[in-house]
Specification:
Helix content of chain B: 25-40%
Helix content of chain A: over 70%
Distance between the termini of chain A: 43 Å
Order of helices and strands of chain A: HHHHHHHHHHHHHHEEHH
Structural class of chain A: mainly alpha
Low-confidence stretches of chain A: 358-364
Radius of gyration of chain B: 20 Å
Oligomer: heterodimer
Strand content of chain B: 15-25%
Strand order of the largest sheet of chain A: 1-2
Strand content of chain A: under 5%
CATH superfamily of chain B: P-loop containing nucleotide triphosphate hydrolases
CATH architecture of chain B: 3-Layer(aba) Sandwich
CATH topology of chain B: Rossmann fold
Shape of chain B: globular
Largest sheet of chain B: 6 strands, mixed
Radius of gyration of chain A: 23 Å
Largest interface: A-B, 25 and 39 residues
Number of strands of chain B: 10
CATH class of chain B: Alpha Beta
Strand order of the largest sheet of chain B: 6-7-8-3-9-10
């Protein structure tokens, strides 16, 4: 019986992987630049959501530093992948700092560097701030994020200050973001399944009890924070590679709220929930662009539809979801074939229950 | 027999602990000894400083003065997780389970402190990490079977009845493989029947896992029946110690619990 289930599950997984791969290959070949951009953004938002969910959802520490870590990763790619030849064009106000002016690397090493630098920043900032709890930690990490942004605005010779960096070689395919997102997702699943993942959850559930069970609070929250920083750095690096041009204003603290929205909507402590909601939020915002255009229905011009209305609709939708799914779409559960199967069974049972008395009435 | 026991190094010893919070002295000059294989109880009226004493022993507080020795080795001021790794486990007065996790996960988490692989090998499931992981699962399974939690293994911890939550908290403490078990009011809120079951349970695990037990308790039936020795604390000061009989007949203890008659 159990083996039968396993076989079925493996089969279903293989089908899912095949369908997903076929879709991605098809998309990469045939879809418009605009659609590919959306797929890329979904992948980056998924990575950022997972990064934030690790520290907020799984370890239970309220951190709002994502935008700052993302900026570090994005600037690592921006600074090191712009071809040396065009750098003088980018840094036209002040020449680039000579130490780094001639260092050039490909996208992948730059992305890893971005992740590592971001992780180092998380480690250094973690020492003072991880002693804080709850709202205080949120304020401290938010402050850190702003400090990074302001530092980048003023480091003219390294980051080109408020002008930002352009001519970043951007990719015209979806494989870097999508494959990275897949690797990060698998990594997160394995991490959460491991003993360390359980230790993170223990800290989330009850810090005092976790410590009494021999789990070092500082060591484990630091580990979670540093991994989260690394992933956010990679997300930022991908963002720079997608957009081709970045400036400090993109990394305002409001960016963090997008990720917070994703994890709250998907479920704090659910990996699959984060993936689902990152697609809903990113793609949904694009689909809702209809609301920004004037609409005429049956000859009547609906006055509400105008630029900006999309955000109103989106916010209302969010409120509805949060009202009906107070723990997010997935809560702390993960999507699995059993869960889907059970859901179908329940719907079937509900349908049958509704159906029977009606039938009885008919026979009379 | 008792003589040789007394001569050995005590499992737990506190030396003149003083714990001050601002102007309040919660525990004053407390010196106790708990020996291998004993069940020792710490009793006293509400607010006497019993839980504070526990928190000092387990590293939640660093004492203002004095020291704590575990088998002769000073553990004063160590972090709680380090002290647990040295073989001291505890339960809490108000149950502190990992509420939203299952019974199985609650116990499995307590095995993490003996997990020696780094996070990368654990995540990538390298052979040595995988072996340790397997061992953790096997140990958890064994403990669950032994302590009669098999039927509720996959239940969410907070959904268990009160008595079983207490039992799970003790099971979780045992999972850290302690030598010294500290129980903070294990029978709080239990009815007489549950208390009897708990008494039996504590005796069983003590023999089976070769534990030394130091407990805070208010249920006098339980205390008098199970304890080898009793310490009595009042306003942070030790007012009596001895066997259950000695303590029961000590006038100071009676005075602390019942109050003295005021002269008219």
């Amino acid at each position: 019986m159990k083996r039968e289930m396993n076989k079925k599950r493996i089969l279903l997984n293989l089908i899912l992987i095949a369908v997903a791969a076929a879709f991605l290959i098809y998309a990469d070949q045939n879809m418009s630049f605009y659609s590919l951009r959306i797929i890329n953004l979904c992948a980056v938002y998924a990575i950022m959501g997972l990064s934030m969910n690790l520290i907020n959802g799984f370890t239970g520490m309220f951190s709002l530093g994502s935008a700052g870590f993302m900026a570090i990763g994005a600037y690592a790619v921006a600074i090191f992948t712009v071809p040396v030849a065009v750098r003088s064009e980018v840094f036209y106000l002040q020449p680039m700092w000579p130490v780094i002016a001639n260092i050039h690397m490909g996208f992948f090493p730059a992305m890893i560097l971005g992740g590592v630098l971001s992780a180092v920043a998380a480690f250094l900032i973690g020492f003072p701030v991880l002693r804080l709890k709850g709202d205080y930690l949120a304020i401290a990490t938010l402050g850190f994020s702003e400090i990074i942004r302001i530092a980048f605005t003023n480091l003219q010779t390294v980051t080109n200050g408020p002008l930002g960096i352009k001519y970043i070689p951007s990719f015209d395919h979806i494989w870097w973001p999508v494959l990275t997102a897949i690797v990060v997702t698998v990594f997160m699943f394995l991490l959460i399944k491991s003993s360390y993942g359980r230790a993170f959850k223990a800290i989330r559930e009850d810090e005092i009890a976790a410590e009494a069970m021999g789990i070092g609070l500082f060591k484990h929250s630091m580990l979670s924070f540093v991994i989260s920083g690394f992933l956010a750095g990679m997300g930022g690096a991908l963002m720079a590679g997608i957009l081709g041009t970045i400036d400090p204003k993109q990394f305002l603290f409001t960016l963090t709220y997008n990720f917070l929205l994703i994890i709250v909507l998907g479920g704090m402590g659910s990996i699959s929930g984060t993936l689902i909601s990152s697609v809903i939020v990113t793609a949904g915002l694009e689909w809702l662009r209809i609301a920004d255009e004037p609409l005429t229905l049956f000859g009547v011009n609906i006055p509400l539809f105008r630029p900006g209305f999309r955000m109103v609709v989106f916010s209302v939708l969010l409120m509805v979801i949060v009202l009906f799914f107070s723990k997010g779409l997935m809560g702390t559960k993960e999507l699995s074939w059993e869960l889907i199967g059970n859901w179908f069974e329940r719907q079937k049972a509900r349908f049958n229950k509704k159906g029977t008395p009606l039938k009885g009435g008919e026979s009379k | 027999m008792t003589q040789t026991k007394k001569a050995a190094v005590p499992v737990l010893e506190t030396q003149n602990i003083l714990m001050r919070f601002g102007g309040v002295v919660a525990v004053n000059n407390l010196s106790i000894q708990v020996h291998q294989g004993e069940i020792v109880a710490l009793i006293g009226p509400n607010g006497a400083g019993k839980t504070t004493a526990f928190n000092v022993i387990t590293g939640v507080y660093t004492p203002t003065e004095g020291g704590v020795l575990l088998k002769g080795e000073p553990i004063t001021g160590l972090l709680p997780n380090k002290i647990t790794q040295k073989g001291v486990a505890r339960t809490f007065q108000n149950i502190r389970l990992f509420k939203n996790l299952t019974v199985y996960e609650n116990i499995l988490i307590a095995k993490h402190l003996r997990f020696k692989a780094d996070f990368m090998s654990a995540t990538l499931q390298l052979p040595h990490a995988r072996r340790m992981e397997k061992q953790m699962h096997a140990d958890t399974e064994a403990l669950i079977n032994r302590l009669g939690l098999q039927s509720v293994k996959n239940e969410i911890a907070s959904s268990l009845p009160y008595g079983q939550q207490r039992r799970l908290e003790i099971a979780r403490a045992l999972a850290t493989e302690p030598e010294l078990l500290l129980l903070d009011e294990p029978a709080a809120g239990m009815n007489p029947q549950e208390t009897d079951e708990l008494t039996e349970f504590i005796r069983e695990i003590k023999d089976e896992y070769k534990l030394t037990i130091f407990m805070i308790e208010h249920h006098m039936d339980l205390v008098m029946e199970i304890s080898d020795r009793i310490y009595v604390l009042d306003f942070g000061v030790l007012i009596a110690e001895g066997t259950p009989d000695q303590v029961q007949n000590n006038p100071k203890v009676i005075e602390a619990y019942l109050g003295v008659e005021e002269d008219a």
